Amino acid sequence: MEMIKVENLKKSFGNIEVLKDISLNVDKGDVIAILGPSGSGKSTFLRSLIDLVEIDGGSIYIEGEALCENAVYPHAKEKRRILAKTGMVFQHFNLFPHKNVRDNLLLAPMLKKQGTRDELNKKAMDILEKVGLVEKINEMPKNLSGGQKQRVAIARALMCDPDILLFDEPTSALDPELTGEVLNVIRDLSKEKMTMLIVTHEIGFAREAANKVLFMDGGYVLGFGTPEEIIDSNENTRIKNFFAKMTY
Amino acid sequence: MAVGCLLTLKLFIITIVLSMPLGLVLTFLYTSKNKALNKVVAFYILIMRGTPLLLQIFFVYFGLPYTPIIGKYLTISDRFTAGAVAFILNYAAYFAEIFRGGLLSVDKGQYEAAKVLGLTDMQTRFKIVLPQMFRISLPAVSNEAIILIKDTALITAIGLSDLLKVTKTIVNKTTNISAFLVAAIFYLIMSYVLTIVFRLLEKKFAF
Q1: Cβ of A94 and B107 within 8 Å?
Q2: How many domains does chain B have?
């Protein structure tokens, strides 16, 4: 069964058609880098998979269940159930600024009654250990560096035991010397067979950590295949030109 | 003079305690998806901010009883209650605007983060948005509270003896202006205490 299945997805903002006809199957453990020029619809596509963008046409299935079928959505509670195993990490982290690291991690699972405070506390420690931030558990977000904030954001998403993680330009707001620590965490997750979709401009990272690359342009998927097929030896002139212009 | 101080304090506390929650409710209605409700609240705020508080105090005490048909149910015979009602209705409008500003300042990324973590709209509102809205609103709320402590003097208009009224009587009686000085110091101390309290709150909830 596919982790995510997208059929003929369409999305417009006003008169502008941003996503024109997207179909995609994502298998378990896939790490898919979504590449393409600005304005190609990468982020909109990613956001539609977790219901931050409501689509106008087509269907989205998450682990076999319909988040949206022919542009018809179930009610909010049903959507929450279907998306319970899906998490997302944002470009600007979106940590809760009024809560310390611990409470950022505990808030959602506590509200969803996914364990006692003690259990969740222990889980938070384990996950922070994994992203190398145990000693920051009582810090407020404003006292963390960008790279640390993003690692806390990933930890927060992991608290809900996701099967699928979506990353929307996770390193674009970071100083270059801080991107490494975030990419390392994503790399570790890929070793644990986490299914991930990553909108990124880090071609080097896509080549090395992703098993598939999705190339988008003008609201269409122009290419979907292994990093070698898409980045190194593609016959499509549009794709070739894009990578020829990248300095990496 | 102590009696006047007490009345001023009482009016201040009652107004603050009741107008803030009412303002919050107005903010919710103002920003809700119901267009009709938005308009009603917008009109309410226009009236409350667009006419003098003094007029509103007169209206609640002297005017409401003359309302056709339902006038007798709207009569508030106790001067203090009538004055407090006017203050609460007026300040709620200002607080509603302050909270609306705070609400607009909460980053939309916060709503998105809450949603992808599986929070319901209610949980998002009460656990994520409101705490940040209050924090953002604090300096403006502090400002409003300091204005209120001095506005309380308007209640003299319906014959109540607040601090200022008592002071004036003393000055008339004694032909000595030192009572004015005492009143000024009282208002100053109140404002100063409020400033300190809000500074502490800002520090405590800094993020």
Answers
A1: yes
A2: 1
